[in-house]
Structures are given as C-alpha cells and as structure tokens.
Design goal:
Strand content: over 45%
Shape: globular
Structural class: mainly beta
Number of helices: 1
Helix content: under 10%
Largest sheet: 9 strands, antiparallel
Length: 190
C-alpha cells in the first residue's frame, strides 16, 4: 500500500461561486489563494483525506463595489472570518473517475456538512520551474468539484426585495473548484 501526499498548486487551483442576481442572471465571485492537501492511497481512494483553505479577503467579482459588499458583514464578514475551509471526512467512489466527497465546509465561522461531486481528470508528469530552472518532472493530478449550498445555512443572509416579490440574491449558491494537485511525496507502508 502506498500513501501519496499532494498539495494544491495555488496558481492553478481556483474556486468560483455563483448565485442568481436580480432574478434574471448570475453574479459570480472568485475567491483567490486556494490552498489544500490530499493524502490518498490510489488502491483505497475511499480512505483519502482532503483539506482546503480559501482566502475570503480576496473575493473578486470584477466590480470593486460588489467585492467590498461581499467582504462586509452583510455577507462574508472577512474582518472576523478571513478564511473558508473544507475538511473531507468521507469519500465514496461512484465510478472509475467520479467521487462524492463529504465533509465540513466552514464559511463565516459556521460549519455545515457538504458533499462535492468530484471528477478525477487524470495525471501527468510535467516540468517544475523554480528560479528559472526546470527541476521536473513533477507529477500533477487534476480534479473538478461542484456542489450547491444554501447560503443561509452559513449565516450569509443579506438580501433585498425587488419588484413583484423577487430578491436581489438567491439563497442557493453553486460552488465549483478546479484543483491542480502536485505530488509532494509517496510513502510505502508494509
């Protein structure tokens, strides 16, 4: 049995959330600086361990006024809760490349169980550049994860009413995470 340890490369790992806005479209945000780790025995993926941390202070929508509002106490209250975390506690393999990863998602200091649908995208040996030199190859693996959460479950409840009973922001939020993990080490157990 070989346990492998991977880290999420922040430059190539990204998260995005989207919620309905003004009843007609979606508003999107991208938190920056997504870090994480994955420990997995390829022969026993159901025993894997995954953790991720997102820097909520860097939420980006492309609109400075929206960014400031999302960071405020009306939404994420990043002054008091600067990070979001996910700690996977159960992994179920659904098919050869499909998994359900369940764990605690913590946003705004509130932890709730969430299940991500995860697709394993494969792995490849690639260059690894440091200080202008290729120190590779390094093994990389890719994953795409999605889930839908109710933002009210995490005390993210600001809203306003628009014409005919509509709302500014929907309660349901789609979350997508793209992970590029880099093999850190491999340990062989007896």
């Amino acid at each position: 049995m070989a346990m492998t340890k991977w880290f999420f490369e922040p430059g190539h790992t990204a998260a995005e959330f989207r919620a309905r806005h003004m009843m007609v479209t979606y508003v999107r945000g991208q938190p920056k600086n997504v870090h994480g780790l994955l420990e997995v025995d390829p022969d026993k993926p159901e025993e894997a361990r995954v953790e991720a941390t997102v820097d909520a202070t860097q939420v980006f929508t492309g609109q400075p006024q929206s960014d400031a509002h999302l960071r405020s106490a009306d939404f994420f209250d990043v002054e008091h809760h600067p990070t979001w975390t996910f700690v996977g506690s159960r992994i179920q393999q659904v098919s050869g490349t499909e998994f359900e990863v369940t764990g605690d998602l913590t946003v705004r200091g509130v932890a709730r169980p969430v299940t991500f649908d995860v697709t394993y995208l494969g792995q490849w040996d690639t260059p690894w550049w440091e200080e202008g030199r290729d120190l590779g190859p390094r093994r990389r693996a890719g994953f795409a994860a999605t889930t839908r959460i109710n933002r009210h479950d995490f005390a993210v409840s600001w809203n306003d009413v628009v014409d005919r009973g509509g709302v500014v922001v929907s309660p349901m939020v789609d979350v997508t995470v793209g992970v590029e993990a880099v093999l850190e080490s491999s340990e062989t157990a007896a």
